[in-house]
Amino acid sequence: MSATDRSDAIVRRGQESWIFIYIVLGFALTIEGLVFDMIFYFPTNFILYIVVGAATFWLCLYNEQFQNALIEWKNRYENQAR
C-alpha cells in the first residue's frame, strides 16, 4: 500500500446549470449558423457549420472545464452588486 496525495471531485450539475448550458449551446449554434451563412456560400458554409457546430456541441456537453467556466461566468454575473 502506498499513500497518495490525490483527491477526486465529482461534480453533479443541477437542472438549473444544465438549462443554462443548453441555452448557451442554442445561442452559440444559432449565431454560428448566421455568421457562416452571411460570410460563405452554400457548400462551404454548410461544411463549416457542421464542423464548428460539432465542436461547440462537444464543448458544451462533454468538456468539464468549459462547463465550469460557463457556470463561473453565470455565477459571477448573477452575484454582482448593482
In short:
The protein has three helices and no strands. It has helices at residues 15-39, 42-62, 64-78.
Gap between N and C termini: 54 Å
Instruction: List the secondary-structure elements in sequence, H or E.
Output: HHH
Major sheet summary line: none
- Indicate the overall shape: flat
Beta strands, count: 0
Radius of gyration: 18 Å
Helix content: over 70%
Oligomer: single chain
Number of domains: 1
* Percentage of β-strand residues: under 5%
Average pLDDT score: 86
| Unreliable sequence segments | none
Briefly note the structural class of the backbone. mainly alpha
Number of helices: 3
Secondary-structure map:
Blueprint: H1 15-39, H2 42-62, H3 64-78
Helix pairs in contact: 1-2
3D structure, described in words:
The protein has 82 residues and is an all-alpha fold. It has one domain (15-77). Helices cover 74% and strands 0% of the residues. The chain contains three helices and no strands. Helix 1 (15-39) runs antiparallel to helix 2 (42-62). The longest helix has 25 residues, at 15-39.
Tag the structure with descriptive keywords.
82 residues, mainly alpha, 3 helices, flat
